[in-house]
Inverse folding.
C-alpha cells in the first residue's frame, strides 16, 4: 500500500528522469490518494493555532543511504509549526512514550526552529528565500535543534507545491512584528486553561520580596539593599523593576543615567565578598559631559572600593574577553558538523571531522568561559575581593559569567529549582535580549548570537564531569535548549522585563520548568555517552585544544589545589579545563545522527541491564525456593522477550529504536588518498575503529 510503501526518488513537479527507480507506479499514487488520506495521522492544533497551507502526496525521506527511501504523507504549515502527517511506522510501547515531547511531535518543526531552507533543482542544492520563479523537486529544512528534514515533491500537485513552499519560506524567513508571534495567539486562547504548578517554587524576582529573600539567603543583606526606584520602569527600560545595589549608594544616583554606570548586585559569597555587574555609560563627545561622567564614576567607585575593608577587581568583558562575533562565528562553523543530510555525507566527512571541529573554535570558547569563571571564583573565594563585571549593556557575557560563577560556588544553584531561579534572576531579569539573540523576529541576523546556549554548554561540562553534584541531568539541559524555539513560553521571547510586561497583559505563560511527573531517582538517568562516544569526542580532542596557556600563579595554585582534594559535591565545584576534558555535548548535538549512537549502549542502557539482571536473580531465587518447597521439577518457561535495555540508545532518550548504520569508519572513496596499510598504521590515532562495537 502507498501509505507504507518504500519508494525511491528525488522530488518536485517535473517529469521523472529515466534513472528514477520506484517500487510504486506513478498512476498508483494518484489512484490510492484517497487511501493515503484515510491513513494519515490527525493534525493536532494548539489553542489559537491555525492551519495556513498544506500539500498532499509528499515524500518524507529517511536520511540513510543517500535519501532514496521514505514515507508518503501530507506536509502542512500552521502559524506555529511545520508538520508532516504520515503513517506512524515506529509506534512505541507505553514505556517509551513517556519520553515523548508533549508539545512538539517527532515530525513537527516550530517556525522559530527553522534555520535554513534549501531546494533541490536538477540534483543541485540551493538556498531558498523570497519569491521563487521556479519551485524545487525536493525541500530540505535545517533546524536550529540540528534536525534535518527532506521532503520530496515530485508527485505533489503543482499548485500545492507552490502554496506549501511559498508558505514555509514566508512564515519562517520574512521579518515579523512582535505582536504577530504565535505566543500571543496561544496566550489569548489558553489563558483560561492554564494553572500555576503548586510544586514550582522558582523565585521569579518580580517583587521586592523576592530580592530581599535572595539577599537573606546569601547573607548579602548586610552590605546591599533591594530598591524599588525603577518601579513602573521610570528610570530605565533595560533594568528590572526591582534590583539590588550597595547600601551606601543613594537612590538618586541610580536615576542619573537611566541605571547605567550603577553597580548591580548578583550574588554574595560566604565570606561577604560579592559579585557585581555594571553597564557602560552613554558615549559622549562633549568634554563637559565627559567630565560629569568621570566624576560620577569616581563617586561610584569610592562607594564600592574602600581598602582595606572593601577591595574591588574589575573585569572589562567588552575589551578583554570574547566578542559576540567570536561566539557567533564559532557556532556557525560548529553546527555544520551535525547538520548531516544523509549517511553517505556523514562517512565522507568523517576523515576531516576533527580538523573541522578544531577550526570551529567552539570547544575552545567553552574552555575560555570556564577559565574566566574560575578566575572570578578565585578572587571571591581565595583573595576575598569583590568582582565587578563590566559590559556595554551588562546583558550578555555578564549574564553568562555571573551564572557560571554561582553554579560553581552555590550548591543551591545546582538544584533544579535553584537553577531555574538563577536563570530567572540573571538572564530574564538581567535583560538578556532573547528576542534578538535568537532572532525570533527574523529582522537582523547580525544580532543573532547563541549566548544562552553557550551557557548551557558550559553547565553541561560541569554536569558531565561532576554528575552527583547536580539535581538535574543533561536531558534537562537539552530540553531547556529546545525550549528557546517553542513560542508558547514567554520566558525566552523578550528582550527585557519591561518589554514582556507591556506586551503580556494577560496571564503570563512562562516556561513550566518544574516537571509535572515525579522525576526518576537521582543517578539512574545520568545520560552520558558510552565508551565509544567518549573516545570519539573526548580522548582525541586533546590534540585540538591548546592547553598551554600561561595561567597566573595564584589561579594555577587555586585550581590545582582544589583538584588535588576529594570533591565536596555540596561545596565549591570547579571543572577540569584541560584540552581532553572539554567535550562535545553529544546528547544535544549528535542525537539525530543514527551513526553516532550505540543501540543497547550508554549509561542508561547499562543501568537498565543491571536492574534487569537483579530482577532475574530475584526471580530465580523465588523459583529455587518454590522448588525446595514442592520437591519436584518445575515446568520449562518460554524464553524472555527482548528486554528494554537492548532497545535503549547511548543518546537516550532522544534516539529510541532508530535505524543504525554499520558502515566502516573509513569511506571507500578515501582509500586511495590514505595510501597503503603502513601509512594507515602510522595514522592510527586519526581514526576510531568501530568494528568491535
Amino acid at each position: 500500500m502507498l501509505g507504507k510503501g518504500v519508494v525511491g526518488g528525488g522530488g518536485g513537479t517535473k517529469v521523472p528522469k529515466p534513472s528514477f527507480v520506484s517500487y510504486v507506479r506513478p498512476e498508483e499514487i494518484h489512484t490510492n490518494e484517497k487511501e493515503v488520506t484515510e491513513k494519515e495521522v490527525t493534525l493536532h492544533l494548539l489553542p489559537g493555532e491555525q492551519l495556513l497551507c498544506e500539500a498532499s502526496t509528499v515524500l518524507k525521506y529517511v536520511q540513510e543511504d543517500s535519501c532514496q527511501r521514505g514515507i508518503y504523507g501530507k506536509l502542512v504549515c500552521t502559524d506555529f509549526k511545520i508538520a508532516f502527517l504520515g503513517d506512524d511506522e515506529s509506534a512505541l510501547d507505553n514505556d517509551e512514550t513517556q519520553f515523548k515531547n508533549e508539545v512538539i511531535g517527532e515530525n513537527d518543526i516550530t517556525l522559530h526552529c527553522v534555520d535554513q531552507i534549501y531546494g533541490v533543482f536538477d540534483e543541485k542544492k540551493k538556498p531558498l528565500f523570497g519569491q521563487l520563479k521556479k519551485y524545487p523537486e525536493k525541500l530540505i529544512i535545517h533546524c536550529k535543534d540540528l534536525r534535518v528534514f527532506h521532503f520530496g515533491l515530485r508527485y505533489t500537485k503543482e499548485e500545492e507545491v507552490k502554496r506549501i513552499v511559498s508558505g514555509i519560506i514566508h512564515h519562517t524567513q520574512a521579518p515579523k512584528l512582535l505582536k504577530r508571534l504565535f505566543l500571543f495567539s496561544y496566550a489569548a486562547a489558553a489563558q483560561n486553561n492554564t494553572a500555576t504548578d503548586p510544586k514550582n517554587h522558582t523565585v521569579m524576582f518580580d517583587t521586592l520580596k523576592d530580592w530581599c529573600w535572595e539577599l537573606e539567603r546569601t547573607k548579602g543583606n548586610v552590605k546591599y539593599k533591594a530598591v524599588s526606584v525603577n518601579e513602573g520602569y521610570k528610570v530605565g527600560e533595560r533594568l528590572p523593576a526591582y534590583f539590588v545595589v550597595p547600601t551606601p549608594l543613594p537612590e538618586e544616583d541610580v536615576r542619573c543615567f537611566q541605571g547605567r554606570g550603577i553597580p548591580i548586585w548578583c550574588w554574595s559569597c560566604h565570606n561577604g565578598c560579592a559579585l557585581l555587574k555594571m553597564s557602560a555609560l552613554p558615549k559622549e563627545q562633549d568634554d563637559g559631559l565627559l567630565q560629569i561622567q568621570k566624576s560620577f564614576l569616581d563617586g561610584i567607585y569610592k562607594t564600592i572600593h574602600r581598602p582595606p575593608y572593601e577591595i574591588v577587581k574589575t573585569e572589562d568583558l567588552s575589551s578583554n574577553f570574547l566578542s559576540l562575533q567570536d561566539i557567533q562565528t564559532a557556532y556557525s562553523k560548529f553546527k555544520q558538523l551535525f547538520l548531516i543530510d544523509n549517511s553517505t555525507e556523514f562517512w565522507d566527512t568523517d576523515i576531516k571531522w576533527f580538523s573541522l571541529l578544531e577550526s570551529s573554535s567552539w570547544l575552545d570558547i567553552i574552555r575560555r568561559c570556564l577559565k574566566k569563571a574560575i578566575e572570578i571564583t578565585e578572587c571571591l573565594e581565595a583573595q576575598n575581593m569583590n568582582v565587578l563585571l563590566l559590559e556595554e549593556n551588562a546583558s550578555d557575557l555578564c549574564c553568562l559569567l555571573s551564572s557560571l560563577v554561582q553554579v560553581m560556588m552555590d550548591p543551591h544553584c545546582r538544584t533544579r529549582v535553584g537553577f531555574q531561579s538563577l536563570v530567572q534572576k540573571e538572564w530574564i531579569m538581567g535583560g538578556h535580549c532573547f528576542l534578538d539573540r535568537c532572532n525570533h523576529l527574523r529582522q537582523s541576523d547580525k544580532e543573532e548570537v547563541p549566548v544562552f546556549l553557550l551557557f548551557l554548554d558550559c553547565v553541561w561540562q560541569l554536569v558531565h564531569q561532576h554528575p552527583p553534584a547536580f539535581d538535574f541531568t543533561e536531558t534537562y539541559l537539552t530540553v531547556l535548549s529546545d525550549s528557546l524555539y517553542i513560542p508558547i513560553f514567554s520566558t525566552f521571547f523578550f528582550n527585557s522585563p519591561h518589554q514582556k510586561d507591556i506586551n503580556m497583559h494577560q496571564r503570563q505563560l512562562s516556561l513550566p520548568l518544574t516537571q509535572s511527573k515525579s522525576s526518576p531517582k537521582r543517578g539512574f538517568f545520568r545520560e552520558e555517552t558510552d565508551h565509544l562516544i567518549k573516545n570519539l569526542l573526548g580522548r582525541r580532542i586533546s590534540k585540538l585544544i591548546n592547553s598551554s596557556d600561561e595561567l597566573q600563579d595564584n589561579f594555577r595554585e587555586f585550581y590545582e589545589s582544589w583538584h588535588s582534594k576529594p570533591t565536596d559535591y555540596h561545596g565549591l565545584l570547579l571543572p577540569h579545563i584541560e584540552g581532553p576534558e572539554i567535550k562535545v555535548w553529544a546528547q544535544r548535538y549528535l542525537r539525530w545522527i543514527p551513526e553516532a549512537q550505540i543501540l543497547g549502549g550508554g549509561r542508561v542502557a547499562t543501568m537498565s541491564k543491571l536492574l534487569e539482571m537483579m530482577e532475574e536473580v530475584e526471580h530465580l531465587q523465588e523459583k529455587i525456593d518454590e522448588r525446595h518447597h514442592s520437591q519436584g521439577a518445575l515446568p520449562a518457561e518460554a524464553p524472555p522477550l527482548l528486554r528494554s535495555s537492548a532497545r535503549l540508545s547511548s543518546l537516550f532518550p532522544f534516539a529510541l529504536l532508530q535505524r543504525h548504520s554499520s558502515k566502516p569508519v573509513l569511506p571507500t572513496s578515501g582509500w586511495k588518498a590514505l595510501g597503503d596499510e603502513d601509512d594507515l598504521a602510522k595514522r592510527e590515532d586519526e581514526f576510531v575503529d568501530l568494528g568491535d562495537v
About this structure: The radius of gyration is 28 Å. Residues 603-630 form the longest helix (28 residues). The first strand starts at residue 51 and ends at 61. The mean pLDDT is 81.
